Fold these 2 entries.
Entry 1:
Amino acid sequence: MSYGGTIGQALVMEAVSKRYPGTLAVDRVDLDVNAGEVHALMGENGAGKSTLMKILSGAFNDYSGLIRIGGQTVTLHSPSEAKEHGVGMVHQELSLARPLSIAENVLAGRLPANRWGLIQRKALFDEARRWLEYVGLALDPRQAVGEISPHEAQLVEIAKVLSNKPCILVLDEPTSSLSREETARLFDIIRDLKRRGLAIIYISHHLPEVFEIADRVTVLRDGRNTGTLSIEEATPRKLVQMMAGQTIDEFYAARHPEIGDTVLRAVRLTRYGYFHDVSFALRRGETLGLAGLSGSGRTELARSLCGLDPVHYGTVSLRDGIIEPGDYARSVSKGLVYLTEDRKADGLFLRLPVSQNLVAALTARHATLGVCRPDKDSAVAHRLFTALHIVAPSLEADTGTLSGGNQQKVLLAKWLATKPHVLLLDEPTRGVDVTAKRQIHEAIMTLTGQGTAVLLISSDLPELVGMSDRVLVMRQGRLIGEMEREELSEEAVLLAANGHYAFRAPDAAASNAGRGAVRTTASGQEGEHS
Amino acid sequence: MNAQTTLPSPRSAARAVLETAGIYAVAAALLVAGALVSPDFLTAENLLSILSGVALLGIVACGMAFVTYSGNMADLSLPATMAFSGIIAVASLSLGLVPALLLGMLAGLAIGAMNGLVVGKLNANPILWTLAVAFFMEGFMRFTWSNNQLYPEIEPGTPGAAFIGMFRMRAGPVPLIVLVMIALFAVAHFVMTRTRFGRESRLAGSSRAAARSSGIRVSRVVFFNFLAAAFAASVAGIFLTSMNKLGVFYLGQGYDFKAVTAVVIGGVMLSGGRGHIPGVFGGVLVIGLLTNILTFLGITAFRQNIVTGLVFIGVVGFQQYQLRARGKDYA
């Protein structure tokens, strides 16, 4: 029955430390995980979670402290040693080879071969199919990984790690790209693995998930263990206090947006295969949420709105002018900008200093006859660096060396620098710690206070509900409805995004929006509350 | 982490000095080594001959640096561009010296514009595309001029004689070509550090996707980078033709690799977005000093190529090692 072969303490880490040049990233951390236990590991970005897990997966040969696996003292100085001792790690960033088949990815490194060294394709696909079924994927294992969606790839990654039969499984933010159903499926898998005696370390920023799946929680802050609680003793407030060292208050409630005239209007906007017949209006000072599951076309809509991606039908107008489709540089100069959901792929210049990232969108504006104005650049960079509380050794530090939360602040600051009329935000706080998230939210509120209109795409429901004045719901490429601030709740948005909700007709919603700040009676009609 | 954490905000010039100090240290070491090799080495005459010996390479490298800096690795069609602009200049000498020079420049710029358009707009792989253009241009020039060399008239007073005299012109003891090189380096340094175009080239070189999504017209930036490279190559090509007193398809051969070597040992990363023109100048000097010392040692040109190749391999290897040490975001 026992999968990893251990009962009791599967993993013990005692006084484990890891020093990077200049910082002690992990400072004498003790952690123990039992077989058959889900142990959540929480903490803000930069708290040392990922470094601690990197130690466990054999990424360093210079950590100090003691690690015991299954009662035996081990040294984990290389990834292969970690693998031999049964550590399996599912990283947040996927490590799949996109051109290869799912089966080859799942069984990478131990492809079934005959004695001539040729791959036995049938055995390969059969075994891969078993692992796919186990994680609830009905995919053909011969398909290339490049052709499947990101959330399917996440599950393939999990299948890949499980196929190594680990006794300690580390999951780093495994649900960040999963839908609700897929998350539920993943939790079923985790419960099954738990029954089989695996020790599971679950890293997450999502409190509800932790309360749903974990048996115990350990919180790290500034590289130190600030405590381990059983899930019965833990409360959200307590955990957040342990993570942030301060209480969170209801700062969303303090929003008093002054909403003005329409600044952005989309009419019957269509990009075949992605979104269809989308019409809506966005007003000055307004924060308009865009809810929907991953794959609903939210990101594609935003990218087409601003001209990064093509439009097949329909128009976008900003104030009084029509936005040329496919000319993003012009949209930026007119004040319609898009904050990308993937800061590493097309958001930041990771190899350049923070200062240059902050003014990257101002090259045209800060030039007189083609010659730069370093004085203007430097003034803007200093102002934003302070205003957003960016934590970095200096303005000249390479952006890639910053923590995720601070990188995200740099990305937002790049657009704040342009003083846009309309800011399209795509997952502005994904994978960001509590403090950075709050600072980002404050910056957005300041911006809307100055009259900027914001379109907010977010899978983070508390964020979407807390920040938005109105929410449009998108499903399978169409706008299926709209909710006003009073009707907003996490449950209502979730149900709507899943299509379990009756709405006003989207056309009516669009025309209401166009009429300005005056709210119609529609919100009170025919049982719209769940 | 960054070494300059305590500095408030070092200007690009300060950074340039820090990052290019290495190559000048190498140049200084070579000066010492040269002095030990021969008493004739550290004479004004020899040093000036080193400078004029690398002037053409310097001009080409100066343009190549823009292509590398903007993340397009290298323009391998620069030798063909050099030869072509030289041939066209010689072929149009009957129109007078100035029109001939202008037409020669235009011919070279046309190749650069085509490269810029194809790589910038159509996203062709810069190495493969410019390699193909080099191959095509060689065939085109051989076919058009039936494998012949083009000789300008050399009667005194003719445009041809003036053309040939260009390479041999001096301002006092300093050859014109050295002054042209220094002027181009100065302009290139200004463009790269102080202009919008230079700034956008760096952003595009660091991450093309991020530059595009920052509202920069990347295809336009790439276009002008190739145009800059072709401009420099045309200038060098015309001087090279003037030096050889003839225009022919193979004239620029070898300048592609040598220019990339100068650019890369000067600290411009092949992956784009990093480096400085003063470093490239240092790289050119190092190549010039090295060649000169090897000549003093009696090592022939072919064996000098072996040394240049080894230096390139060593430097690229070292850069990659440094990048890997900085972590995955740099590799």
Note: The domain at 54-287+298-326 of chain B is CATH 1.10.3470 (ABC transporter involved in vitamin B12 uptake, BtuC).
Entry 2:
Amino acid sequence: MKTYVAQRLVIALLTLLGMSVVIFALLRLAPGDIVDILFSTAGYVSPSEKQAIMKELGIDRPYWVQYVDWIRQMLTGDLGKSYRYDQPAWQIIRPLVPVTLELAALSTLFAVLIGVPTGVISAVRQDTTLDYVLRLFSLAGLSMPAFWLAMVIILCLVTWLAWIPPLSYVSPFEDLKLHAVQFLLPALAVGYRSSALIMRITRSSLLEVMREDYIRTAWAKGQTGRVVIWRHALKNALLPVVTVIGIEFAFLIGGLVVTETVFNLPGVARFLVQAILWRDYPIVQNLVMFIAVVVILSNLLVDMLYGVLDPRVRYGG
Amino acid sequence: MAVSRVEIVVPAGARPRAGRWTALARFARKKPLGAAGGVLILVMLVTAIFAEILQTHDPIATDAAATLASPSADHWLGTDHLGRDIYSRIVHGARVSLIVGVASTLLGSVLGGIIGLLSGYAGGNTDLITQRILDILQGLPLLVLALVMSAALGPAVHNVIIAISIPIIPRAARVIRSSVLSIREMQYVEAARSLGVRHLRIAFRHILPNTMGPFIVLCTAQLGSAILVEATLSFLGLGVPEPYPSWGRMLSVSAAEYAQKAPHLVLFPGLAISLAVFGSNLLGDALRDTLDPRLRGS
């Protein structure tokens, strides 16, 4: 077990290192340099001024020096300075993290609450009309853009309930109820979309488990259907679902990017979009790296959890 | 002559190739949902090809006299804040969505497919290193990667296509690699090798054609997500630039300001996106069940 964890950690670190190279290279693909973009509104920048700015930003140095410098910065926990705000990036990002984490947690909760029961019902009633309806329902969630779903939800509230959701962020310490409503709606939109994959895995994994001998034994003992399904079958069928929730996390962040924008929530994802639109590259670079770390850590955690949940899983060398 | 007549016995199960139409009809009967998805994609294709004939107004022409008009006999789906006809813009948007969706899916799947084919066939360390590199690409959320790519490349149709295709590469490579791994061990490949056929020729001529099933499934499934990513990028202002009418951008311009006054602005383009993606998801699922039984239910 210990060697396995160590091995996984090394692989995760190598993957992160590779990601940093990819991200660094991708952003250097940009046509024109950052100075031109920064001063595109000013019109003309004299060559000497441009040189001075490039020197100040440190982008006149060779790429590999910039890369090594960036990595050194990241290792010391320094996320650099935002071009736009002229502030250390970490100071801007820190208050945004809880917002995104809360939204991500709520969305995952909704995804599980929608995905697992529909998956179970769909598997138990395999090939009936109900099964088809539920599968269509989940596929529809996968097909609708999360941002559009969010817009439609807002629109419905405004039209039918004449209730306009708060346009700016409400802190939970100010007004807990309003805060909850503000978060539940986008979480529902993102969660419904993410529930599709969970529903599918639950369904197919439950169908597989239902064919096992011990399930037949449970039936033969005269157990009621509910006990067989919820106690015996689901316990084992949920293992792959746990993995999917981990994988889902990367998918979820993609959904959050736009949902935070639509609902005007000050989270990391919305900030990433804004930084990209402003071409604030140091911030973009660091935020993407931050997301990568979160995704990899969550995958790692899920893998570990898997072994705890299922003693049959042996972490071989 | 001793042998005067050679009777060719055709076993009942192996009738001469059933016509394409028969095969299609059988698919439609067995997979009604998949067929419905196919019809949706077909409708989108026809709309994209005949956009000029189907339009009722110039999709780019503005009309100051009829801004934010509700659906009517003249403007079937209403007009936007500049008085442009929503119906005509959706019809032309199908073209943009389909071109970007199909091009990026094909680009990503072909590149990924070749990588998967070669790394799966080569095996050993080449395969191991390739897999780790693909891990890196796949570790980033698809949308985040596409966002960064399209921002770095600048707004242009071909750049959007490249930005969307990059995240597809690792997914395609995985699928093709796994089917190459099993095909590689088959006897006919061994036979080809013992005949002295060169490696590249074995890979491309003998193995590649047999990965077509998973490849088609992959493309159909990815088409939906490519259309969705394009819509999202355009919604954020990083996708297909003006003046092309794109479904995603129709939502972004209208969204915040006019949604309350004119809900049709939000409703119809979003429905168009959802139906297109829904169609390709339905078709993809049905094709997977039919062509690639190993992936069934996953």
Note: Chain A touches chain B through 53 residues (CB under 8 Å).
